[in-house]
Amino acid sequence: MPAKPRAALQLPTGTVTFLFSDIEGSTRLWETQYAAMQQALAHHDAIMRDAIEANNGYLIKTTGDGAHAVFAVAVDALAACLAAQRALKSRLGGELRIKSRMALHSGTAEQRDGDYYGPALNRAARLMAAGHGGQILVSLATKELVRNRLPGIALRDMGERRLKDLLQPERIYQVVAPDLPADFAPLKTLDTRPNNLPAQTTPFIGREKAICAVKETLSNANVRLLTLSGVGGTGKTRLALQAAADMVDEFEHGVYFVPLDALSDPALVLQAIAQALAVREAAGRSLREQLLGYLRDKQTLLVLDNFEQVINAAPRVSELLTAAPRVKVLVTSREVLRLSGEMEYPVPPLSLPDPKRLPPLERLTQYEAVAIFIERAVAVKPAFTVTNENVSAVVEICQQLDGLPLAIELAAARVRVLPPQKMLMELSDRLSFLVGGARDLPARQKTLRSTIDWSYALLTGDEQRLFRRLAVFVGGCDLEALEAVCNVEKDLNVLEILESLVGKSLATQTEAHGEPRFAMLETIREYARDKLIAAGDEERVRARHRDYFLALAEEAEPKLMGAEQAEWLQRLEHEYENLRASLDWCLLEAASGGGLRLCGALQRFWWTRGHLSEGRQWCVRILGKAGAEERTQARAEALNAAGILTYYQGDYTAARSLHEESLAIWRELGDRRGMARSLNGLGNVALDKGDYSAARALHEDSLAIRRQLGDRGGMAGSLNNLGNVALDQGDYSAARALYEECLVIWRELGDRGGNATSLGNLANVAFEQGDYPAARTLAEESLAIRRGLSDRQKIADSLEGLAAVVAALGSSLRAARIWGVAQRLREEVGSPTSPNELPRYDRRVAAARVALGDDSAFDRAWQEGRALTLEQAIALTSEETVERP
Q: What is the rounded distance in angstroms from the CA atom of residue 602 to the CA atom of residue 608?
């Protein structure tokens, strides 16, 4: 059923009336009469569209086998329903008669991007779900707007009913018209089956995938026991209640909610179930016998909430399921029951947008975490809206709170006194900030801390100890790291305890490169860190954490120039949050040696992966510590690292100063290898300053030392840099010979990054000599290696070289787009084109502009390129790519 283009719709605002429709039994019809259903649906769609548009309505969207429309006037909505039902009654869909249930509800809903959101919309959908094919239902709000407006039409009072959204009851009316059926089966509301599901004060938002997954699992005839697991605050109870409400029609003898949060004695669980079912002890029979006898022939769903604190009662659940073969049990718990036949559904956090790529404001509510924040914020401050000014703060709040519903609700309640931007600043101590839940919440849900306390108190002493120590890891860890840092005393069964913590939802387990990895939600980690500090164990454990990751970085450093380069770069990237945490501890501790060594070990990783600014900042902060001024090898290494990072950022004066100090220390220590490295750095600075004779001399001195030491990797670096001097002076033959010599060495060593550097430089030589096919081949090979290493800075170099080739071959617009992408990459990394390369770069861009002869078109293409992905840019370098204006 095609709707009008949304751009053409002037959608009504204020109080509107929503129409929802749905074909009764459509799933079964599709399965049994597919061809006939196709024809029938086409008739249905045409009828609905005509009825809606003929009565001044707006078709917003189709919803499977139904429709969702909005009307400015309620009586128009009712007229559309009547017209559609009459047409469906008189016309057959081929051989297949179809019936549609329809419902109307009036209220105010938020409108964004040609669509509507909010409780009024959800209420209309729930109202429709209560009806039957051929039936029209209206809410009390709509009834008040349409009564006495359509002669001959009556509204039959169906009474106050509880819809399956679990909110307050709704008074429902059935539309009765002389020419339409008037008698239907009882409404499908919560009232039609026995249940004690508690009413909720706020609407259930999002979680469509989770609801579907839970219902689908429970509907499986082979599933008798399903446990919704997750840490406190993930919304397990609310998800279980909503799933139970949706499935109430599937359980002939009812759905019953059994809260266990007030219990501590597992022996009382059966009593709690009996109380929910109103089963009482009879003379001569125990309560257990009475309960099992009562349930024996019942088709019932039991929702057992907060089972973790009575986990030893799990065998009683098994006994109940054995005695009552038609009973199913839906459990919420922070750990599974570990029973035969149990299925687990780990409740995920709410969906979150990527803070680095925010969607338009009107689409933010498609993310559950943001939708809940907005809904709860509006509840306490009706004027609250998400704006361009506060959207980043709202998303960051939801991110920092791990998408946990309870945490987000507690934060949103603070909107009453704090705007999101200010609230974000307060979240550095989130456990203290997130207090003040609703008065009618259980005590454990009034603060985030008390929610986690609930789980922590259930741990054994050893579990608590490992839980606390796990907090030092940021972004998780593997088993080796955990053993090294957390089990130095060798008195913990780490694997067994980890299994328990994961089972209790206090840790998560994923797989990385075939190895298990363990982590915590950041909110849980903050709580565990507080416990670690309170136990007086933080300094000792963080020092072990620092030592472990310092050793990892120093092991990685030489391997970043060999055959295992890509593997070790990826490993360091994977552990980068832990490396940052180690550096942070190095700043806090009195000693300075560990921090200086860590900076020295990480410099190649930092510049390869484009962490230039951050790496430089760490170096500056560590070098500036009290005690770090001692002229040691570690200080010289850190100075050299800072010099390299500063050089790549284009701050040549600072880079020279750093390398000169490191060189002086190396000379004092008699460390010739270190001297060669500092001389190499000074040679690069001299080249970019345009001092060719000094650059050549410095690189030759570095090369001489490296030859004497047999440092093949260092020799290749010096040869490459001497080639750069020759290239910039226009001596292409000398440059080629030097690049080819160092390429042989780098290939011998398996240094892929070095290979890419030589290939890229040889591409420059080929281009300057007019051999564009060779330049393309060499640059493409270099780019492929750099992509494999995720070397973003050098990827920009390769793209710039390929853009020049593309332009020289007659495709200036494509070249401009490629240059645009490269410029954006450089800005993201913070690495400008070096002064010695800039004349060559400017000359190539200028030639492409002149060849095109249209500066405005060239500039437009450049800006288009800045918005392209790397993959799109690489596609543009292909000879087969067609030039477009």
A: 10
